[in-house]
Structure formats: C-alpha cells, structure tokens
Please model this.
Amino acid sequence: MTKTDRRWGRFTLHYVEMIIAMFVGMYALGALLDLLGLSVSHSRNPELSYLVMAFNMSIGMTAWMRIRGHGWASTLEMCAAMFVPVVPLFPLLWLGLIGGDALMLVAHLAMFPLMLAVMLRRLDEHAGHAR
Model:
C-alpha cells in the first residue's frame, strides 16, 4: 500500500467516523430529549425540529473531532454542514412549496456532500494529520 493509498484510506475512515458520530449524536441526544419530555414535534414545528436535530448531530461530531485532535475551525465548518442545507429550504417550507418531510429529506441528503466538501477543503487535517 502506498503513502497516497494510506492517506485516502484515513480520509475515508474519517468521513465514515463523522457520519457515525453524527448519527450517534442525533439518536442519543434525541432519545434524551424524548426522555426528558423536551422533544419537538416534527409535524407541528419542522423548522425547530430540524434545528434541534442538526444541533444534536453537531454535538456528536464536535465531541469526536475534538477527541481526534481537530481544531475548532475545521470542527465548526463540519458543524455548519449540518445547518447550511436548510437555509434555502426554510423559505420554500414557509411558502408551502415543500412540506416538513421534504425539508428533512433534502437537507439530510445535502449534508453528506457538504461534509465531504468541508473535509476536502482541509485535506491534510482530515486525512489523519489533525495533531
């Protein structure tokens, strides 16, 4: 295996780690909010529901990125990828052009390429050279 292969392997592993951390944050903190009676109804408040979910995903990713030695700038960029997709979608929701389910679906699908773009922007850091 070449040095380049190892670099892209580490990059790919980090991308998968970020997806896992995102889902762990989303499900674990979502379950905690449910347990505490603080969950937000997606059907009644899709905007707030999405923002809470994006925050929960960001917490999971932030924790893992900081454990792995990433700086705050790259960590916050990764978290922004959770929120940025919804910016053009909220007005479409408010105008009645899309529903809450479409908002969730499109925003979640957009997160993955945005996360990849953020990681490619700081390739050396995300390819295993965070420390």
User: Anything to note?
Assistant: The mean pLDDT is 93. The two ends are 23 Å apart (CA to CA). Helices lie at 3-35, 46-67, 72-83, 89-94, 100-121, 123-126. The longest helix spans residues 3-35.
